[in-house]
Design brief:
The chain is an alpha/beta fold. Helix content is 38%, strand content 16%. The protein has helices at 76-82, 102-115, 127-139, 153-161, 173-186, 200-206, 208-217, 231-245, 265-272, 296-305, 315-329, 335-347, 369-375; strands at 3-7, 13-14, 36-40, 72-73, 87-91, 119-123, 142-148, 165-169, 191-193, 222-226, 254-260, 309-313, 357-361. Strands 4-5-13-10-11-12 form a six-stranded mixed β-sheet, sandwiched between helices. Helix 3 links the parallel strand 6 and strand 7. It is globular. The termini are far apart. Bound molecules: zinc ion. Zinc ion binds at residues 7, 9-10, 12, 21, 23-24, 34. The site of zinc ion has 8 residues, from loops.
Amino acid sequence: MKFWFRCRECGSRYDELHMLCPQCQNDPAFPPRGILETFIEDPGLTESWTPRDLLPLDSKYFPQVPVGNTALWEPERIRSQSGFSRLYLKDETQNPSESLKDRASFLVAAQARYYGFSKIVLASTGNAGSSMACIGAAAGLEVLLFLPESAPEAKLVQALQYGAEVRRVNGSYDDAYDASLEYCEKHAEKVLSRNTGHNPFTIEGKKTAALELVRELGNVDHLFVSVGDGVILSSLYKGFEDAIHFGLCEKMPCIYGVQAEGSSAIHRALEKGVFTAAQKSSTVADSISVDIPRAGMLALDKLQKHRGKTIVVSDKEILEAQWRLSSGSGLFGEPAAAAAYAGFEKIKDSLERTAVTVILITGSGLKDIRSAQEGVKP
Ligand SMILES: [Zn+2]
């Protein structure tokens, strides 16, 4: 499979791997410029295509671990309560480390094999770290994880169980991110960065979630997803763009990026048309708590281009939605996953009830028990 990279900012094309476009300048107080997107030659798809046919690497590099092909729930009680007869929950908790992040880790592990790296480095709010540790364990790759002190214990224990080296960072996710970038720069020849947004293959891996929806549902009308760094949001757009480009579906769904009140940089940027200086984030939904959204520029671009929308929900709304989702469907998502459901609940009255509507449940509720306990009804 032939693939190349293109800078979303200046349009430069690269055949060799870069983390960000070397020609674009960055200001550390703002989301990075020069995020690279990956493009592939026409894969010559047949009727029996699979999402992995649209990945840039040959399957011989793929680790043998069951990532993706997650279930699409048809939650009968939520359907009848809400009146949305074609509502679906895409259950990403079924991935090996119980989050959607495995889709990116899977491709980054393949990328490490392709480029000849044996060590992968990243910062994480928790899910990406335990995910990379998991897939790294399966593939025999060393993983070094920079994790903020605030990360939920379950995600730390998960990463340690999988054998990753974990460095706790006394600070926020953004501090951990900076520490990991510094390490990657110092050891650039020897390590592959899986930092979200930076490594263009994280977007490629995650786009398979959108491609699975296309394969199962054809056209999707509305898609709800929680947003922190903006990588999953950008990846979903990339998946549907690829699907439309290669004739697999006709329309781009309306994608709703749901942010927590205390971490809503992309929402604010969409309202103003530009990013303003970073604000300190604070939300119960740790997976989407970021000061500077690392794929913010790309996410904003795609939201504007495809007329996507953003919704902001409070921590209270998130925890209540988490409980209603679990008790109403049987699917227990973590707070960030429940944020997407909270977003749906918030605006559902403005949508047509017969529309094909999907809510992406990005990670398991068991990853953060302490938050979930707060939302449990007596
Ligand atoms: Zn550039």
